[in-house]
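Exercise 7 asks you to align residues with tokens for two separate proteins.
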Amino acid sequence: MKKKSIKNPLFRGLMRLIWPYTFAAVTQKHTIMKKMLKLTAILLVAFGGLLMTGCEKTEDEKPVLSSEKNVLIFRLPEVSPAVTATIDHNAKTITALVPSGTNLSTLVPIIETSAKSTINPGSGVMTNFTGPVVYTITAEDGTTNNYVATITVDGAGTETLSGTMSQNRTLVNRNDGIDYIIDDMFFIDGNALLTIEAGVKIAFTGIYTGINVGANAGLKMIGTANNPVILTGPVNNNNNGSWAGVQYQSSRADNIMEYVKLINAGTETSEAAIYLHINSKLSMRNSEITGSASHGIATSDASLTAFSGNTIKNCESNPILTNNLLTFKSFTPDNIFTGNTKPELRIEWAEMLEADLTLENHGVPYLFSHSLVIERNLTLKKGIVFTFEFGQHMTVRGGGKIDARGDALNPVKFIGASNEAGFWSGISIESSRENVLEHCIISNGGNDSHYMKSDIAIWEGAKLNLNNTKLMKSAAYGFQYSGSFTLTHNNVSFENCQLGNVYDYDNDVVHSNLP
């Protein structure tokens, strides 16, 4: 085998220096040999040091960064007893079941992750778990994993709610029976939003219990056709008005009721199952109010931004009480009002219509406790009934216009709240726009007020198209006119007008027919 030659020049130089002395040491005395051996050892040590320093590195050494990025422990120590979550590293999920009554919106988890990794949101940070929360874990090398944490309240039993709620919260369907009990007036305050999920059932314990939604707060209740949200009275009291109801002072867009049932809400003192205070708003669809000891819904300068597919029944007063006819702007024809002691949609203090409005026929009358002045466009669908309390009237003036068109089977009616001649004052046309009354019945007018002595009166500069209409049961005249006006008429009949059919106010003359 061929020996490898030593190519290091330092080594070869040292060998030349050492070799003569080591060779001479063989023939000389013992003392000289000892000296030479000692010198040899010293030179060999020096050679070793030179050899070590002469070596070159073959590659740069680089540190290795960790790629570990897992959640190792996820604990909720403030829950009693403390809860440790289940972690699925394959699915990247964190799940935990916490005891009944736990507030999911204010939990502070303690989290341990892989060495040299970081997590966001961090350990010890208050977190809202009313919905899933995504945690991002970043390894030392910059790579990441996302874990989804879901915390669920144990569905066993019920939870009692009371006092004031000032943070967002979601009420979930806890079991097949009553999920929550409210034993006093429950206030939603600040900017808090209370969300009530499908299938939740809440029982209220007495006539002073209910929900009050503050000016900046919100209440969002969304059920389904098969799993409605149910708000009901005490389990041992199935009487009408067994709890106060829901009051809104908020104009938030997320005040929503969909597939919600309010059962026996609305005491005599609370006025309605749902009360909307000034400037408040509510969107209501496919919901039901039943068994109020007063009204179904009462509004005061408030807005029902949507109202469709609802039923209000078996209330001891009116299904709707409002001070503004515009409340009905969003009402669709599929709402049902039935079995109510006072079946009318009642409008109080509605003295002026200042925005365009189209009204649907809901199968029950619109009842006016005060006179109505129309200064914008009012359109009435066939079959609608307007009823007026004693001595009130309806006036169309200025830029106002009425367009009321029924048909032979479904006439539009303007009548007194009591079927008595002269119970109300009738309709006064003072507008020069294209007012139309077609297939209408006007009855019980002629109350002597505001110069009105008839079911209909037309005045200077006004215009009216009157067709297929009956003027009936006036305490004075069927029709009255004054000044220069435009009247088109066809098939207008009169019945039981006590002082005559047509009265010329300027000349104090009674005629049988219209001019």
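Second protein for Exercise 7:
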Amino acid sequence: MNRPKPSFYILSVLMVLMVCFAYWNHFNNPFHFDDEHTIVTNTYIRDIHNIPLFFKDATTFSSLPANQAWRPGISTLDAIDCWIGSKGECMRAGDGVRRDSIHFTEFLHGFGKGPCNTKSDPIPYYYHVHIFIDYLILAFFIYLFALKIYDLAFKNDLNRYIALLTTAVFMLHTGNAETINYIISRSDSDSTLLIMITICAFLYIKGMWRYWLYLIPMFIGFMIKEPTVMVAPILFVYLYLFEEDKSIKQALDIKTDLKIFAKVLPAFLLAIGLFVFSQLQTPDTHSLGGTDRWAYMKTETFVMVHYVSNYFFPFDLSADTDWGLITSIFDHRVIIGTFFILLTLGLAAWASLERKSRPITLGILWFYLALVPTSSVVPFSEVLNDHRVFFPYIGLTMAFVWALFLLYKKYEEAIGAFFFGRPVIYMGIGLFLCAHTYGVRERSKIWSDEALLWKDVTVKSPHNGRGLMNYGLVLMGKGDYKGAMEYYNLAKTEWPYYSYIYVNLGVIYSVQNNPVESEKNFKYALSLNSQNPNCYFYYAIMLKNNNRIPEAQAMIKKGLALSPRHVDLLRFDAELNTSVRDRIESAEKTAKQNPTAENYLNLSLVYYNNSRYLDCVHAAQEAARINPKYDAAYNNICSAYNMLHDWDNAIAAGRKAIEINPANQQAKNNLALSLDAKNRLANAESAAKQKPSPENYLNLSLAYYNEGRYLDCVHACEQALKLKPDYDLAYNNICSAYNMLHDYDNAIAAGKKAVALSPNSQLAKNNLQAAIDGKKGK
């Protein structure tokens, strides 16, 4: 092979400089979207010593249970970049909590202002630098791959330049900006790098090692993202077209097919083994979010048209599209998509008839094979994502550039004869690359700011509830609550069952000091998705801001049960515990140093607000000892005993408070609560004993449930079922009681019977789902 001319090196340097210039404005772009749960709130990636754990425990991948998948390679890269960032700038004394993107908590009272008790926060800059370096390395392997294929197809002096042009077109393509700017999409770019290393190893290594060494980068690549397994069929196509010199017309030659398959059998076996292993490692909580497999497949036919259209005219790029499922096979989009796929596959078959045009065949088949993991039989919640085509676009670029080159060769003499022929072509190539460079910079600007990104989504994907919601969040961050509410309501119209919308509504109502509406939305969000730890986090903040500390702590506990290393939950838990501890210690110190009745009363109130009810009683009793006529102390004693369901002592204390001060309305209310509770339980027991009907036993079970006597609740329901075996409400109460006892197997069994007897009972469905969720979280 002849040595490259100086012009080749000049053009290579120029390409690298253009790529650097195209992405020069993206290095400080913030975290977005799924970066939040995989990086920002994921404690595991903040400690580089957790790297071995990533390979054993898939829950380390994300702070959201539904998104936890076995991708240890990505978590490793994220941990390394976080560690580099901590060495670079995160460890400066006094920095406190560093925030690189807008968080809800910045608009809620008090949280997020104290020092962080975890490792330093990840900084996007270091992630972007690492991803971009890998991107430049990828260019080298794309060039090697393209050059090898072009030489095998049609050896000529221009192949180096055509391979370089192929690399330049791919590296500067505007569509790739969606992947390079979106940090967690390094799973696409870095796995593609390993795919290209794998293929180049297979193409360039000679001898017996050829069929084994290439498996190493394939193995590593799979741990970054699963589509790496498509290396196996791509290598099969390469061998078929070039080493066996066959056209698609000869595809039914079984003997040849088996011969080729034997050469790449290790890759297929490794792919199957890795896939099975990853599925075994993936937690049960993981969900792709898709539902209708066949509707998804029909929709993907037209998605292919969108991807190819965006390749040639990348004006419709969106960070979050609003495409829905197409259910009818007769929908015009399915017909157009199917025809388009058949047409392009027919073009691939036609191009395979001559060896010199087979790079077109390989490129088209590469495109479709690379899309198999996301655009076939496995339904995802989003039917398309513009960052999914990073790997497929390599094949499309090869087919496109090589087709133009063959067209040029066909009319080379005519072009040469025209005085401005070749300069016009060179100028056209330059303008094409410059246009894409401009496109990359513009998309990087969009990704540089949450407001720009989500506004762009609302314009291009106006029916995407998540996009509308996120733009509402941006407006809320700017203090535009009216505008935020408008977008939240639009989002609710588009996606009425998306729990995050109601989380955000809960937040905005909390900010506007409307705790009733806030709590209503938080509860509805949990009814839609009880596995969302973020809901528990923001709900807890609302509770804390309304001085409902024990309830806030309970919410944090539930959130941490789902996501034990959720950064924001851990921070809030530490901050709340510190706040509680300081408040208690301060009240105890004051009461000890100055033992007045008022100070002990205040101490009893602090104990009460933190669910320390017996301590509350003892402090209030000390206040009453100092001042026997202190009706407020007896009121606190009554209230604390109410919380302990000790009705007799509560009644005695309440009566004492009213005896001292007949005008104490709070004491009257607490006493009424004690008497009502005691009478309600006594009446329920008496009714069931005197008239043992299913309804009376059900009422008794509810009374026991409210008392926290859950086993007694179950026994009362069992008595009801003896009298009425098909009593769905009794099974529902049993399910709910067993849920409180964390006996999820018995809860599920009872819940299933309740739903079977009353399929329309939403309460029974909710209790059954809570039992199922509880068992998963065990």
